[in-house]
Structure formats: structure tokens, C-alpha cells
Amino acid sequence: MEQNLKQIEEWLLIHAPKIVHESLNPPATLIQLEQLEKTIQKPLPEDFKALFLWHNGLKAKSQNSGNLFYGLDFFDLEFIEKNYLEVKNSQDDVLIKMGNVDPGINPINHRNPLWIKFGYDWSRCSIALDLNPIAPEKYGQIVFIDYDYDTVLLVARSTEELVQTFLNDLHANRYYLNEEALEDGNHFIDCLPEIDLINWKSKKNQRWKRMFNT
């Protein structure tokens, strides 16, 4: 995990240095991680902690509009905790099920506070750490929540797998700098249509093909 994160940073320094120098926060502290665990009253997987001990998300205000996994924003721990509390404190009296979910994902509550969101697409899609799966062995899996299509997809079985896949995709040239952002002096990465998580329903998409009738 540590080596993979190091290689990701090396790739960014070559291809999108402003993300490293201007967008990414310094590492989180163990105290900050313990505070989040205390708030959610659940243990965080060690690989999820390792991700934030690398960098504590992206700066909310930065000269460079950076991003990370699948071109999504990457929250810091303070924002993650704030978002968790907002969702937890605004639960409906009657739970509404999510319409379509991959196997192993608990559909019982479409606003599940234990989907710990740590990134989003600046609209209605989020990537989250799942601390309320169907089976205990799925604890800590990474899911993608698309409220427009009432769907939750399994992205990775763990944070470590998410990081490994991201690194593999970087080395396979599946990420590139967004040209419009570059014209404005920003380093913002896009991914190829074949792996684009945000546009998972696209016919060009190979990784996220699903059998949902949505």
C-alpha cells in the first residue's frame, strides 16, 4: 500500500505536479483518524487510514482544481466527518431502499450514514467506504453511489484494491490531463471512457457494465 501510494505520487509529480504541490493536503494525523472513528463509532480499516496518512484529501480552496480516483474529488477528514453527521442527523422516519445494488451491498437505506463518503463528482454521485455491508467480510469495501440512477456499484473490495487499480490505470495511460482545465492553468485528470465511473452506463464503458434495467 505504502509503495503504491509512493508510485502514484511519482506519476502525479511527472504528469500533474500541481495536484501534488497545490491541491493535496499534508498527511492526516492519528488523532484526526481517531476522532473520525469516535464520531462514527466504527473502526476504520487500516488501509483506509493509510490513504489519509499519505494525504488528508484535497484542499477545499486551492489555486489548482485537482482531483484523484476516477476524476472525483477527494475529501479531507474534517469534511468526511461533517458530511457523516449531516446524513446521520437528517434520516427519514421511513427508510427508502436503494433500487439497484451490486451483490454484498446493503440496499435497506438509500441515505445510509455508514456509507462514509470521501469523494464526489460535484453533483449527485459519491464514492464511499462501506461500513454497513450485507456480510461482515465485506466491511470496508468501496462503493459508488449514483442517486440519479438509484444505484450503488461495487468499486473495490478494499481501499488497498482501489489504490492498486488506480496505480495500474495510471501506468496503462488510462488517465490524462483535461485540456480545458490545462488552458486555465489547472492540472485536473480525466479517465478514458472504458473505465469512467461517473459515466458507468455509457456503451463505451467496459469496466462498469451492469445488468440493471435503469
From TrEMBL:
Domain Knr4/Smi1-like: 27-169
A GO CC term attached to the entry: mating projection tip
InterPro entries linked: Knr4/Smi1-like_dom, Knr4/Smi1-like_sf, KNR4/SMI1_regulator
Database matches in Gene3D superfamilies: SMI1/KNR4-like
SMART domains: SMI1_KNR4
Pfam families the record matches: SMI1_KNR4 (PF09346)
PANTHER family named among the record's database cross-references: CELL WALL ASSEMBLY REGULATOR SMI1 (PTHR47432)
Protein name listed in UniProt: SMI1/KNR4 family protein
Gene source species: Acinetobacter wuhouensis
Taxon lineage: Bacteria, Pseudomonadati, Pseudomonadota, Gammaproteobacteria, Moraxellales
